[in-house]
């Protein structure tokens, strides 16, 4: 890897270990084995590097908990919508403990958005893309074939993921399981 990639990897480690607000340029340099000038040369600023690192961390989370589960082969989703929903959320919840640093970072980022317009702007489009990725990866909806269906399904997936993971962070003993979520969905649909 070159300095640019080393910086990104070091910044990702720092974000997950220290958080956004407590990560310094010197922390990134120490974690990456590079130098301070490299940050400006490759990313323009520490904040720009941290924004890219944050986006990379969240994208990697999505790839790890999606149907491929971090592997090369895409896992086949069940055709039945309730079974598919259950299978996806079973995988997301199974990764809850390992995902804790990612969601801790996500929560910190959200609390910073009112005071950091550049950060807000940097994550708007990737958030929209992430929704479509969730619709495709979690539910098998092709965003190009049916953009509106993918958009609304992605909104729901993103809302569920955020809520479920926060519940797991607060109280894993009473946080929802895939069975709970599927049963709740059936109740909402009037099928139970």
UniProtKB/TrEMBL annotation:
SUPFAM superfamilies referenced in this protein's UniProt entry, alphabetically: Homeodomain-like
DNA-binding region boundaries: 24-43
InterPro entries documented for this protein: Homeodomain-like_sf, HTH-type_TetR-like_transc_reg, HTH_TetR
Organism listed in the record: Streptomyces zaomyceticus
Keywords of this entry: DNA-binding
Pfam family, one: TetR_N
Superkingdom of origin: Bacteria
Residue ranges constituting the HTH tetR-type domain according to the UniProt record: 1-61
Keyword Transferase: no
Stated name of the protein: TetR/AcrR family transcriptional regulator
Keyword DNA-binding included in the entry's annotation: yes
Upper lineage: Bacteria, Bacillati, Actinomycetota, Actinomycetes, Kitasatosporales
